[in-house]
Amino acid sequence: MLNRRIFLKSGGLALVAGGFLPKVFVRMASGATPASRRVLVAIFQRGAVDGLNVVVPYAEKAYYDARPSIAIPRPGSGENAALDLDGFFGLHPALSPVLPLFKDGSAAFVHAVGSPDATRSHFDAQDFMESGTPGVKSTTDGFLSRAVSEKKMTKPSPLRALAVSASLPRILSGSAGAVSMTNVADFGIRGGASSSSASDSFEAMYGEAVAGTLQGTARDSFEAVKILKSSEASKISPQNGAEYPKGPFGNSLKQIAQLIKANVGMEVAFTDVGGWDTHAGEGGVNGQLSNRLRDYGQAIAAFTRDLGSRMADVTLVTMSEFGRTVHENGNRGTDHGHANVMLLAGGGVKGGRVYGKWPGLESGQLYENRDVAVTTDFRDVFAEILARRMGIANLKPVFPGYGLDEKKRLGVIA
User: Which of 87, 118, 373, 376 is at a distance of 20 to 30 A from 355, taking alpha carbons?
Assistant: First the structure.
């Protein structure tokens, strides 16, 4: 028997749930949540993940012809076969923790998605994707920073845009006033036993030394420290039996969940995870990619379980700079390609589907006769999220020079 308590709080519908939340409850909570309380969580898989072995087009004979030693077996062919999604695509078995999200309609994939720029340079491709202006190197800020700036708030939190990373990523650089941290508990001025007095003294001196725009930035920075300290976010334990895998990525998602539950006013969170550049030893069911996907899938599943009904307020999306070649190379790996796959999960996601126009893998269908062709621009996916979930009406400043068209949108966001 389902044990759910539904009650009204602060004029909106709030839900208290256990580990599993039926989709109907997510829809109800989502409908009562204003855009001002919603959170976008973006994850960058740096190094170009092999989307063909993440969401496998097992119905395509050409897939198995191109990958004789690293292809994922068809569903039903054995214990380590692909997990069927829709009769055409299957999920890598290492991502089994994510499958229930897809099956209950709270997660979806977009295939053959990516940047229209043809570069195979990791640095350039990541820069173009984070700036939101593929092919343009002169852009000075990131598109999520522009999105946050475009979302007008009466009194925005100094923690409205946040990255769990060693330095501020390109995607959040700009006028939004984003902050970065590697550890929620250590964010702020550190002074040993006298941390509090050191912070107060430094704040006073800094406030006297700067003026104008810098003064506002300094004030916001210290206000962020105070909010984070008073929230005691680092003391919030995972809920609903969630267990994050040990390691940097699991820890990053755990901290983002802590900040969401602490209600610090965060609107956009970003983190990244590397290790996807599988030129050699990629493997199929077992190998380098499988090992990375296992940790990755467990972390995302733990995040959604931890937040429970709060996932109605949270939309998670993944991205990677480009995909891999269709044909495996001589080292049981793959080289730099073109189109890739994105995962979306949480509030507003019309899940249980693999979206996007599939271009096919026959030689005449490949990009430059080697890669999966891009049929969906990554900016159209983000445009749906930003417009329909985050309440950003004008997306032209977010993606300058790009002809946003409602007809290009996939309908993955309700």
Answer: 118
